[in-house]
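Appendix B, Record 12. Input sequence as logged:
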Amino acid sequence: MDAAKLRVLQSIGYEIKRTCGSCLHARYPSEESDWGTCSVNQYEHEKHTGPARDLSIHRTGKCAVEGPEGYQPNPVAMGMLGGFAQLLEEPLDV
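Logged structural output:
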C-alpha cells in the first residue's frame, strides 16, 4: 500500500472490522452470498427435529468471543484485503 494512503487512512481512524466475512469459522455457499453458517457455534432448532445445526450468520456480523473458538482471520480473506489487512481492528482486551 502507498505510504501516503496508509497515513491518511490511519489519521482518520480507518479500520477493517473483524467480521464473519473474514473469519476462518464462517462457511458460505458462494463468494457472493451474504448469509452463511458458523462452524463453531450450533443450536437446537425449536421447530424442527434432528441434530444440532450450525448457527446462521451474516457476513457483516461479528461475535465477541476471543481465542480459538472466536474470530480467526481467514488467510484467503486476508489475501483479498491486500495491504488493507494491516488495518484490521485490534482484538478486544478481555
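Residues 3-87 form one domain.
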